[in-house]
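We close this part of the discussion by returning to an individual protein. Part of our work consisted of pairing the sequence of a single chain with a tokenised description of its backbone. What the numbers capture is local backbone geometry rather than side-chain detail. The amino acid sequence and the backbone structure tokens for this protein are reproduced below.
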Amino acid sequence: MKFLSAIFASLLFAGAAFAQQPIIIKFSHVVAENTPKGKGALRFKELAEKATNGRVKVEVYPNSQLYKDSEEVDALQLGAVQMLAPSVSKFGPLGAREFEVFDLPYIFGDVSEMHRVTEGPIGQSLLGKLDAKGIHGLAFWDNGFKDMSANKPLHMPADFRGLKMRIQSSKVLDSEMRALGATPQVMAFSEVYQGLQTGVVDGTENPPSNMYTQKMHEVQKYMTLSDHGVIEYAVIVNKKFWDGLPADIRSQLDGAMREATRYTNAIAKSENDDALAKIKASGKTQIIALTPAEKTAWKKTLLKVHKENESRIGKDLIQSIYKETGFDPSKL
């Protein structure tokens, strides 16, 4: 009898120990830890583990340690990782083409205009479209406005002619580069430095924080402060995993994500400003500031990209963002 009691007690102890095992969230991303997204992921880890009293453990894998940006969404859908923060450009190939509205050049004049979209009904409606793909959208994270770089000075649209420019996989970005007279080339983010170094591509577009932390400025002679578009991330989770969490855990993680989002979006501009200052200080890349006339020429050249992608993205969505931000194409 004592023997049976001992076995029963040990089983109870093992069961209790098993029940106390933390829920693991693997959070994979493709950029460095010292970028807005990298710091945001670490802040979420800290907040989530604290909010759940250790019932959740967040493992952050930066710099494509687990998956390249061309692989990570598939990995999430298969459940190999639980959380990502990919560029919203990744959702076009999934059939959620509406997210490519963020790739339209010059659709946002500044961060406050963009936040009126991402933090309002339009943004929530967009995130909701991911549920049918086995993905649950939690938040939008900023990475900042993009600048162009190349090994020749880019002042006017004509300067792009003949250049091979790296882009993310996005039909809108493909249209953008073709409108400028360049040849777009899709390439994984982790491969861009080598592509620039070896001349496989001549240039690229990125916020300064990505340029600096990936050392792209070391293999690019010129950087034009064009602010022509944004890189916006969506923090997403595997829907089956998320729906299977206890309700109190989901609530605690939602709270941690809201706080991490405020933090990430608050530091995005300062991180990019700091990175730009470091790029300037390196002396390896010449910084080009566009004159008002030059920027107007860029806008006029790239405006047709909006029209070309109306049927792909949705004319009503584009018009609703114009209305929200006050953008008026006729005034260019």
About this structure: The radius of gyration is 22 Å. Confidence is low (pLDDT under 50) at residues 6-18. Residues 22 and 53 are 10 Å apart (CA to CA).
